[in-house]
Amino acid sequence: MSEALEWLRTSPLALVALTLVGYRLGCEARDRTGGHALAQPVLVAIVFIGLVLWAADIDYAAYREGTEIVAFWLGPATVALAVPLHRQVRRLRGVLLPMLVAIPVGAAASIVTAYALVKALGGDEVLAVTMAPKAATTPVSIALSEVAGGIPSLTAVFAISIGVLGAVVGPAVLDLARVRDRRARGLALGATSHGIGTSRALAEDETEGAFSGLSMGLTALATSMLLPVLLLLLQ
Question: pTM for the whole thing?
Answer without folding.
Answer: 0.76
